[in-house]
Amino acid sequence: MARRTAAASQPDAHARSAANDAASRIAAWQRRAGRHGLPWQQTRDPYRIWLSEIMLQQTQAATVVPYYERFLDLFPTVVDLADAAQDAVLHAWAGLGYYARARNLHRCAQVLRDAHGGRFPATAEELARLPGIGPSTAAAIAAFAYGERAPILDGNVRRVLSRYFAVEGDPTAARTLQRLWAHAQALIDAAPAALDMAAYTQGQMDLGATVCTRTRPDCARCPLEADCRARIEGRQDALPSPRARRAQPLRHCWMLIAECKGRVLLERRPDAGIWGGLWSLPQFEDTGALQAACAGLATAGSPQAMAAIDHVFTHFRLRIQPCLLKLPGTVLVPAEPGRAWVPIGTLDAYGMPAPVARLLAGLYPGKLPPR
Ligand code: SF4
């Protein structure tokens, strides 16, 4: 785990003295001024905490709340989640994005059911061995559920610590991360044994989300103001250092919207790869493959190109060229394995990638929830 191996990179003496009571100040600030009404803060049940932590990765709390509540209605326990069909899990997740999180959530629930008797392990180290649980998420679950003194380092905390300790370098680069983990560990090591780990962990998250924000941090409200190096040196805007620019390649694909008798042809994406397990439109790498597929569906008529749309992934941009083929026949050509003719009125029951859902919502207004 990154935070364990980070011990090799010890913070300097200045950092250690600065860290002396910082954790206690953050915990006290959280109790006084942090966020308190979020539904996952009212529990020490590791299942609920885990669910919220996975949903909160890359998604804001206000967006997560209705998804969290719906998930608990549908899957009240980790075993209920493990027993559910993957389609049901992906559908409940639809709209939150980053679908690998939902697939890992489901897989993790099955591992917990099959190998752990439906119980969560009680330490961050063991939690981090489960699918989809990284070291920071494992530490957050262990701190909230069991009070373990384990450091977290999510995106918000990286920003706070980069400023507080004036850590230079791309905050996602391995060397910078190693230094930040070491600082995060040092803050806990310097704190008293009675440190309230739930308040401290929540406090770091709240500080990054509401005070030490990406732009215009509100230092006057911050419990770290007195000894924050970025604040003292007036470098809040310069830290964290900008990420190293990486060229983002542009990829192309063609998608077929085949419509016949009030139905649309959907295709289930393979489990591995982007949008794994979701229902999407038949997708092709070039127009030749698209034309060949159309020829297999219709003896007359050709697909009409629609406006192309771009979708941005972490490492590349995907330009999607949608093509609409309205089949005049009254008989549905049997769908190949992995495909299905779906009544337009039931499209909202299928978990779909966001750009595909938006595309179909534009074509068939009122048939899919707004995204
Ligand atoms: S003093 Fe300002 S820059 Fe430093 S941690 Fe607090 S909010 Fe962030």
UniProtKB/TrEMBL annotation:
Membership in a protein family: Belongs to the Nth/MutY family.
Gene designation per UniProt: mutY
Known EC number: 3.2.2.31
The keyword Hydrolase belongs to this UniProt entry's keyword annotation: yes
UniProt cofactor note: Binds 1 [4Fe-4S] cluster.
Cofactor(s) listed: [4Fe-4S] cluster
Domain called Helix-hairpin-helix DNA-binding motif class: residue spans: 125-144
Entry keywords, A to Z: 4Fe-4S, DNA damage, DNA repair, Glycosidase, Hydrolase, Iron, Iron-sulfur, Metal-binding
Function statement: Adenine glycosylase active on G-A mispairs. MutY also corrects error-prone DNA synthesis past GO lesions which are due to the oxidatively damaged form of guanine: 7,8-dihydro-8-oxoguanine (8-oxo-dGTP).
CDD domains: ENDO3c, NUDIX_DNA_Glycosylase_C-MutY
Reaction(s) catalysed by this chain's protein: Hydrolyzes free adenine bases from 7,8-dihydro-8-oxoguanine:adenine mismatched double-stranded DNA, leaving an apurinic site
Taxonomic source organism: Castellaniella daejeonensis
InterPro entries named among the record's database cross-references: A/G_AdeGlyc_MutY, DNA_glycosylase, Endonuclease-III-like_CS2, Endonuclease3_FeS-loop_motif, HhH-GPD_domain, HhH_base_excis_C, HhH_motif, Hlx-hairpin-Hlx_DNA-bd_motif
Name listed for the protein in its UniProt record: Adenine DNA glycosylase
A Pfam cross-reference name: NUDIX_4
Classification of source organism: Bacteria, Pseudomonadati, Pseudomonadota, Betaproteobacteria, Burkholderiales
